[in-house]
């Protein structure tokens, strides 16, 4: 076969790239038809300080029911991602009934540390894909103002005898210091990263970029009804201010209140179904869920999880992080891990957390995995980008990542 004939045949039968294949639309695709979140409010002082997990779950489900333009009886299952409350499954079921979903709608919870919301999304997506359900709702919620203990007691002696197992008891702040020291992430790098996160979040809020993500909710604060409509974001953060803060976790440490994720409360939700079902019901299609990956690593440096989970995920689909991915949402648990992940993955910082991240916006653990989807799809719509990757590090040494395609 001549080179000219090969060229003609290639033109007539172009081989789709891995990215192009993901952009194709098929009836069995799992799609997102609604993506919303509550405002993010400051721990112990913000508008959600008196709201409980069952209360916020009720309100986000009320918003889902009001906005999804579906008979709630069509929803087969709801999954609540939450980290710190062992009663989350009870709350999800009861809140669904109180929000107007019938008793035929099932409910459960998922808990995998900071990926709990993303894990809930993957659970519902897999149920849809397998045919177990037709329509489902994934929620992520965390009310850190409730102050549940992280660990009620130490592990048993047999577990503590294994160093890596014992490292699962390290606080997240300690693991941040481990990452900073082991990988030489300086205090200045962390502070400058944090200031940029604050700047981006301030810019996004003032420009109204978050508006299509948010649903207003009314809650009780100090005994009075309060309607919250926007995130509680600190304006005017400068490097000089952040650089003055004392280390939070060790006397000679590099992580501070200014370069660590804000402690906040909030909830987010997505509705998922197959594309064929969405078209049958006349539902708007915001984006497509492609798939997720989980990776494990030493607990003492848990923050580097995205550097393992993202390549693992992209390799499954033949994607190149730099050429094929448009937006990357990586949870900023601490600036130490965010800087390390950005630099190790050689990410274009303009693609990473373009509206700021958890340092400025906050990190309600169970909410984060869904909040990143909601924010990422909104940003993709605004900028007309296509391929979104979300990722986060997880307590006890793990990372998770997922791919979504914007169709707005």
Describe the structure in brief.
This protein has 408 residues and is of the alpha+beta class. The protein has helices at residues 3-12, 18-23, 53-67, 88-98, 116-130, 157-160, 163-167, 172-182, 187-207, 239-243, 275-281, 306-317, 335-344, 358-361, 365-383; strands spanning 30-37, 41-42, 77-81, 106-110, 135-143, 217-221, 224-228, 264-274, 287-296, 327-330, 387-394, 398-406.
Walk me through the topology.
Blueprint (H helix, E strand, L loop, with lengths): L2 H10 L5 H6 L6 E8 L3 E2 L10 H15 L9 E5 L6 H11 L7 E5 L5 H15 L4 E9 L13 H4 L2 H5 L4 H11 L4 H21 L9 E5 L2 E5 L10 H5 L20 E11 H7 L5 E10 L9 H12 L9 E4 L4 H10 L13 H4 L3 H19 L3 E8 L3 E9 L2
Parallel strand pairs: 3-4, 3-5, 10-11
Antiparallel strand pairs: 1-8, 1-9, 2-8, 5-8, 6-7, 9-12, 11-12
Helix pairs in contact: 3-4, 5-15, 8-13, 9-13
Task: Explain what you see.
Keywords: Acyltransferase, Transferase. By secondary structure, the chain is an alpha+beta fold. It is built from 15 helices and twelve strands. It has helices at residues 3-12, 18-23, 53-67, 88-98, 116-130, 157-160, 163-167, 172-182, 187-207, 239-243, 275-281, 306-317, 335-344, 358-361, 365-383, and strands at residues 30-37, 41-42, 77-81, 106-110, 135-143, 217-221, 224-228, 264-274, 287-296, 327-330, 387-394, 398-406. The strands form two sheets. Strands 1, 2, 3, 4, 5, 8, 9, 10, 11 and 12 form a ten-stranded mixed beta sheet that branches. A two-stranded antiparallel ribbon has the order 6-7. The protein is globular. The chain starts with a helix and ends with a strand. Residues 5-13 have low confidence and may be disordered.
